[in-house]
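User: Sequence recovery, please. Input:
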């Protein structure tokens, strides 16, 4: 036990030390390098390929987070065409009690924009803590269920560094996974604790971790991962014959703080939350069953090939689910034939155990575990039940009514993360506890491996455009993955260690080829435009800015200035009804607006673009109907010129591969304003 206890800390220590080193070196995996004028020659790009598909990270979430630090960590600030209540969002650090439940933001909270490298280190903390939390949360849950450090560590890395996590890096996948799984781990420890104080303390820790997952504010992953955790924790309680008194104690210690904190948050931020809930997207978005895709769910073996050949992805809907980019097509490490084998072995084990109990003679069949290792079947069954719920919702055309108002918040293509967690948990629980006679083992293993290759071949034909190399590589990776998982399941001690090492290597490679490694945040904090914006804010305080050149938008959002163009997280209905009346079907959404000057308009006209969450904002900036926006400055460029008769040219900057022109609103008296910054 003592040796297990020491070994159990190996993975957490390695990850935490690695996080500290990467943070100190100001390294992150953001694709912000793409915002520079020459990203391929940027010396701060240490490794890998920045991903254009991660535009919501480098164009929106990263600039907003950095901009909040530059603005002094306010709780309210103008982001787009609204004074945003940041407590009702999850993108930015702020000076608020809510930050107690956002540890990933703590590095940015203490960052000082005046100190060189401070913001970059704060952002690196934000990036790596999110990733590490995803791995350690899963590791803690697996260890709480069954203390096998090597197995738990291998599977935690397999989940936390899965292709789905790589292609969704920079958003809330790891937050939802790690902290909700960690809450499940704390709940399991509370159920295992005999002492009242210990069980209550574990329940309170579970509450804090669950609240951290809640404040990621992304229901699809929160709900789907929560389904797995609830079923698994219930299975643990059943297996361990936990009394109702202890269950109630842990449940109360977890639920009461969550209810109180969420209730206070809902009350304090009711206006913003109501505005978000009233939006068409995401507020009124509801899902029905059948929005997932088997080929996407089983796409992990194709990720390595697609990372080098992104153009091979087959886009579309229907059989392709919601696949319109590599992020949407990504998934977790899951093998359908291996999963089917695990379910069959679990069913056989339950039947054998039931027969042994009915005999009542205390004799246990040789192929079953020893009596002192019997408390696992309902835990495994809980994982299977959770997976059945998620897969049924993802793949079957179920009506919304069966979602019970909860699963309707989860599109089928957002269940893959939770399915991967359930698969890893099932494997962790069953390794070494199920046996097959040798004469049966090899045919079953061979059949499972062959089936894995065939299933991948079929799914890859739907996933990719016709490419024999991509198909062959995907099949090889799927076969290797199935062999490694079966080695963990049935192998001896040495074979299991070799299989674990090989599986970790496969996981690390599949993750590393997707994400870049970049030093600092130079393209949004250290460019000529960034310095100009900072100097202007120092000279006259933050003012309202609009850019007509989209490439300047993330730099503007990351500055101390108020970016009126670009992303609007949720609309101000009164403002929009005045600016673009009758167009609420377009502007009543979470939208990134590309602004364009159109002097023929009375005010504004919004045109939706093909990508959901983006629109073109055609506006007459000199119209009296637009004056109420109090826009002080406009940025144009040679690529995006505009006639602005009510603005005066006050500066020019060579940046972003073009010449940017800074325009300042002309005072009503007609005097030409002077530049506010050099």
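Assistant: Recovered sequence (678 residues):
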């Amino acid at each position: 036990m003592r040796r297990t206890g020491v070994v159990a800390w190996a993975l957490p220590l390695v990850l935490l030390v690695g996080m500290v080193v990467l943070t100190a070196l100001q390294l992150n995996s953001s694709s912000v390098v793409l915002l520079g004028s020459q990203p391929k020659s940027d010396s701060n790009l240490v490794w890998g390929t920045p991903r254009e598909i991660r535009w919501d990270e480098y164009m929106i979430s990263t600039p907003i987070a950095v901009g909040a630090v530059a603005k002094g960590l306010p709780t309210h600030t103008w982001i787009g065409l609204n004074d945003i209540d940041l407590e009702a969002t999850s993108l930015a650090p702020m000076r608020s009690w809510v930050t107690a439940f956002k540890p990933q933001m703590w590095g940015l909270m203490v960052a000082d924009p005046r100190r060189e490298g401070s913001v970059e280190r704060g952002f690196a903390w934000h990036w790596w803590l999110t990733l590490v939390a995803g791995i350690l949360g899963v590791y803690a849950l697996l260890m709480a269920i069954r203390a096998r450090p090597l197995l738990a560590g291998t599977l935690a890395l397999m989940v936390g560094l899965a292709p789905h996590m790589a292609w969704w890096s920079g958003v809330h996948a790891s937050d939802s996974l790690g902290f909700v799984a960690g809450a499940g781990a704390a709940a399991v420890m509370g159920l295992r604790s005999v002492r009242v104080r210990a069980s209550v303390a574990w329940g309170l820790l579970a509450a804090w971790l669950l609240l951290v997952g809640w404040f990621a504010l992304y229901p699809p992953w929160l709900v789907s991962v929560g389904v797995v955790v609830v079923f698994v924790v219930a299975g643990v309680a059943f297996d361990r014959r936990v009394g109702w008194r202890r269950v109630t104690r842990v449940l109360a210690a977890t639920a009461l703080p969550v209810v109180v904190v969420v209730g206070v948050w809902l009350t304090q931020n009711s206006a913003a939350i109501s505005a978000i809930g009233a939006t068409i997207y995401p507020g009124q978005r509801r899902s029905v069953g059948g929005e997932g895709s088997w080929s996407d769910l089983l796409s992990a073996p194709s990720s390595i090939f697609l990372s080098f050949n992104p153009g091979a992805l087959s886009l579309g809907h229907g059989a392709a689910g919601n696949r319109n980019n590599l992020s949407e097509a990504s998934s977790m490490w899951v093998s359908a034939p291996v999963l089917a084998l695990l379910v069959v072995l679990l069913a056989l084990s339950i039947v054998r155990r039931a027969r042994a109990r009915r005999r009542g003679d205390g004799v246990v069949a040789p192929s079953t575990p020893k009596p002192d290792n019997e408390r696992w079947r309902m835990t495994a069954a809980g994982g299977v039940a959770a997976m059945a719920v998620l897969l049924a919702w993802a793949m079957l055309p179920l009506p919304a009514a069966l979602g019970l108002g909860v699963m309707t918040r989860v599109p089928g293509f957002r269940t893959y993360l939770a399915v991967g967690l359930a698969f890893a948990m099932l494997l962790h629980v069953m390794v070494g506890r199920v046996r097959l006679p040798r004469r049966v083992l090899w045919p079953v293993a061979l059949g499972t491996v062959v089936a894995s290759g065939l299933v991948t071949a079929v799914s890859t034909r739907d996933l990719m455009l016709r490419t024999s190399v991509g198909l062959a590589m995907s099949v090889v990776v799927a076969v290797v993955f199935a062999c490694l998982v079966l080695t963990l399941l049935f192998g001896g001690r040495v074979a299991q260690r070799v299989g674990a090492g090989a599986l970790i290597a496969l996981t690390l490679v599949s993750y590393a080829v997707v994400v870049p490694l970049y030093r600092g945040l130079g393209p949004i904090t250290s460019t000529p435009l960034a310095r100009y914006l900072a100097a202007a804010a120092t000279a006259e305080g933050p003012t309202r800015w609009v850019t007509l050149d989209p490439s300047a938008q993330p730099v503007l959002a990351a500055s101390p200035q108020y970016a009126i163009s670009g992303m609007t997280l949720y609309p101000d209905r009164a403002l929009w009804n005045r600016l673009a009346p009758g167009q609420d079907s377009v502007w009543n959404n979470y939208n990134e607006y590309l602004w364009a000057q159109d002097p023929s308009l009375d005010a504004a006209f919004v045109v939706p673009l093909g990508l959901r969450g983006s629109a073109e904002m055609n506006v007459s900036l000199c119209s009296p109907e637009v004056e109420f926006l109090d826009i002080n400055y406009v940025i144009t460029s040679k690529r995006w010129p505009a006639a602005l008769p009510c603005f005066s040219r006050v500066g020019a900057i060579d940046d972003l591969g073009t010449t940017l022109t800074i325009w300042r609103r002309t005072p009503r008296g007609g005097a030409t304003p002077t530049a506010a910054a050099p």
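The two ends are 66 Å apart (CA to CA).
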